Amino acid sequence: MPYAAGAEGQPDVSGRIRVRRHRTHQDGDRRAGYLMLLPSAVVVAGVTVFPILYSVWMSFHDVHLTVNGYDMRFTGLANYGTLVHSSAFWHSAWFTTYYAVVTVFAELILGMLIALAIYRVQRLKNLSLVVMLIPWSLITVVSAQMWSYIYNGVYGVLNAILQALHLIQAPVTWPGTSTGAVLSMMVADIWKTTPFVVIILLGGLQMIPAEYHEAAVMDGAGPWTVFWKVTFPLLRSSIALAAVFRILQAFGVFDLPFVLTGGGPGNATTSLAVLGEQALFQNLHFGVGAAVAVSTVLMVLTLSLIFLSAFRALVEEGA
Question: What is the pTM of this model?
Answer without folding.
Answer: 0.78
